[in-house]
Amino acid sequence: MGAAGALSSQNEGTPRGRSSIQSMPEPALTPHVLVIDDCEIARAEMSHRLVKAGFKVSHLASPIGATRVIVDQAIDVVVIDVQMPSIRGDRLAALFRGNPRFAALGVILVTGGDEAELDELGAVAKADAVLSKGRLDRLVDLVKDTFRRRRAGQPKQRSERPQAR
User: Fold this and answer.
1) Domain 31-155 has CATH 3.40.50.1100
2) Least packed by Cβ within 10 Å: which of 2, 54, 81, 146?
């Protein structure tokens, strides 16, 4: 049976002018996430949370080779530790934002360091979100939100730490 035959057989029993194909939900798209963190424990914890949530996850202990992984593995969202020895995560995020090839890439900065500096670093680097390693319980939701916004073409910087007043 050809494609036209399959279409017509799926339309049998549906009201005229309506296709049962149109009422079918779109398949859920699951983001492919790259976690970059030089701390093995933090990298494993973030990767575990994301895999448990059903995401496809790759990880690197260093930003070296990140662009190759992002391109070769069609990464949707990258989670980058700010404090790394070879290049700071906020600088790497800024490099991604400055390259049109990575315009659709979601970027989340994480740090176990100074939280007061985190919002400013995220804004300067044009990260989609920032997250303290003390709040990794929010990581899955942040990845989902970042992926959804990037797919919709609505990047937005968010902070996941309470604003000090």
Assistant:
1) no
2) 2
